[in-house]
């Protein structure tokens, strides 16, 4: 059978064996007809608790947490829906929007206009969270599994705290959205590094689709619940980044409902693991470097047999990339096993090491072969990876009885082993 893989800007067609190849592709649910109406419904008829308007009194200060520019959240329409709902109750000067950057860089003025629209930027105060600015943080104690919690001071001091986000599977936190808009989104560096330390990231339950029992998500949830969120609004998006469904209300109940809806759209059960899994990182711009392509590998790792082969087709036009410490850390040890040992020996990690740890764990359990257009065989060997110029030939070398799974859109749909 011929399968079209999402690869770079143009895609890549691959011929794979009939009869023993399973293709797991995303569903493409249509967006809601009226996004504002869907959001208004979520604000007025929440999953749990009273409507938003009943939770805010005149004179109270309100902080809204929103995703930073690395995430495709429809911020403008979500914030506008909240402002419309609180019209006549909330004074504009009592509102602040906090961009939940986590440890990412601040968004520029031009990026904020693209994210929120001109009217919001011109009329509402917007603050980029800075995890490294001690003066902008407040210490709240220790939550969850002994996590020291520093949160944005403006968030903590607001009378009403509202999270906004979107929900999709996450490769070590289980699912995005919900409590992640508090921590790591608005947390201090010490808090983020603890949440993402080697022990938590290295736990087998820190993976796609698992929240309960996931040590990362358990602590994220404990922080949000322990420090207080007054209302939460999340959406689910389709491939065109249109809203498929909206959920509002008390944080944990809202997020649980959104997760179950997202799971039916973005995850697929399979009955048994496969000898070979062919994956991608969903094409450009998501496959522009090896660092991002770890997500495609991670999706494949959920259903490959121990010692099986993952073939990851990612164009990598931006190389490793060369900025940041990812390449330096990834190539610092002679093997994936040695990388894992070195990371586990450190009490804390820096952000690029989170990705390296996930990648090293995958490469310790399976053979990983890349198909790229911009990384040489020698460069990939530095990263303990192989390269193939011909995916079909690489699959054929596993023999006529090898079972094959294909994720043509990579982590856009996450397979998992059914109980």
TrEMBL record:
Q: Outline the extent of the Lactate racemase C-terminal domain.
A: 273-410
Q: Which InterPro entries match?
A: LarA-like (IPR048068), LarA-like_C (IPR043166), LarA-like_N (IPR018657), LarA_C (IPR048520), Ni_dep_LarA (IPR047926)
**Source domain of life:** Bacteria
Domain LarA-like N-terminal, by residue range, is 7-208
Q: Which GO terms fall under molecular function for this chain's record?
A: lactate racemase activity
The family database entries (NCBIfam families) matched by this protein are listed as: Ni_dep_LarA (NF033504)
Query: What's the protein here called?
Result: Nickel-dependent lactate racemase
UniProt organism field = Rugosimonospora africana
Lineage, broadest ranks: Bacteria, Bacillati, Actinomycetota, Actinomycetes, Micromonosporales
